[in-house]
Design brief:
The protein has one domain: NADP-dependent oxidoreductase domain (TIM Barrel), CATH 3.20.20. By secondary structure, the chain is α/β, with parallel strands linked by helices. The protein is built from 10 helices and 10 strands. The strands form 2 sheets. An 8-stranded parallel beta sheet has the order 3-4-5-6-7-8-9-10. 40% of the residues lie in helices and 13% in strands.
Length: 277
Amino acid sequence: MENVTLNNGLVMPLVGYGVFRVPEGDDLAEAVKTAIKKGYRSIDTAQVYRNEESVGRGIRAAIEEGLVTREELFVTSKVWNAGLSYEETLAAYESSLEKLGLEYLDLYLVHWPGIDDNYMNVYKALEKIYQDGRVRSIGVSNFHVHHLENLLKEATVIPVINQIEFHPHLTQEEVRAYCKEKGIQVEAWSPLMNGALLEEALIQELASKYSKTPAQIVLRYDVQHEVVTIPKTMTPARMSENLNVFDFALTEKEMSQLDALHDGLRCGPDPEKFNFK
């Protein structure tokens, strides 16, 4: 596993395990434990996923079985900024910790900016949690450049992460360039476009060339763009495959060919229109 160093010095794995749209239950708890056993050290969930309890059970089971220590894990959750007040945000963090059964998170994100600037109050609460030593790092998700510019006018803690939809059909060059300038690490959610990318002719051609799966080609694309990536799978064999992307490299020409697939296609909401309803 390769890592990135965030702007506060914290080290984060380049490939993590995502659990978006996986329902609460024993299957998820077992999948999280299996992912850790396979070598994942970064686990990503969110308040709105409604599965923090199962994620926490899987993490604690892995720790109890001696597969990993808590200090070796990088656990992320996100607050659902639906008009929350400063105090409600503080309470939401404590609720996530309680559901996960953990004493702290490694990363806590503002999940969406929304169509107003309420994220400012929410982020100030995250700063308070960070300054009190209750979380190891804080950041944002789905922020465009103007959201970041607005945030940084008042922020006392620069976000370590901006987690965005990123894949060859949505390369987000402006956001990535701005984040690089400000020292904010970009992280990709839904990097495989819910599996839709796996049918792309170019990606299948590259998979054949390198004797890799189409998913591995896309995840390698993320890694070479220095983007943290968090694919989701419940299948143990695919968990292993998704980690096995560090023994080959795409050429500059191939990276450019993948970039050229960009057409602005999204598999998730547009942050400019998303209003939590």
